[in-house]
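Suppose you are handed a protein chain with no further information: no name, no annotation, nothing but its sequence. What can you learn? This example shows the usual starting point.
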Amino acid sequence: MPPSGAAYNIDWLWSFDSNVHVATDREWFTDFTPLTSQISSTHSSTLFAVEGVGSVEIEVRRVIGNAAKRNVGPKNSKVVLRNVLFVPGFICNVMGNPVREDYDISIGAERWIMDKKTGRGIGMLDKNPAGLVKVLLKGQAKGGTGLKGDVPERIDVKWGPGT
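A reasonable first move is to predict its three-dimensional structure. Written in C-alpha cells, the prediction is:
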C-alpha cells in the first residue's frame, strides 16, 4: 500500500542511467526483505544506506484533463517494480533502467510507459519544475513536484561492486 501525505508525493523519477530502482518509504513495498548495502549517486558524494529490497506497485495515471472526463475505461494503471531498494535517506524515488525488462519508456513529445506484452500505454510521464522526468501517479497534477529546495539537474543511482 502506498504511503500517504507528503511521502506519497515524493517524485518517482525516471532514470535511464540508474541500474536499480529506489523507494524512500517502506509503505511502498508489497513484499520486503531486510538488506544492508549502499548506493551511490552522481548528485552527491555521499553513499546512501540501503535497508531492504522488495517489490513495489505504483498506481500511475493513464489519462488526464478532458480526456479523463470523456474516457469510460480506467484512468489509472499499475506498474510493478521488482528488486526495489529501500533507501530512506535518498532525495526521491527512482524508477531505474531495469523497468525496461517489462515496460517501454517513451520520453519524446509524448511521454508514456507502455506494457511490452500488450503494447498499450499504461502510464504517463511528466517533467517536474526542475526538468527531470517523473512518473505521474494517481491523483497527481501535471507540473508538480514533491522535491524541496535545490534539486540537482540529474539524479541517478548505482548499486553493486564499486559502490
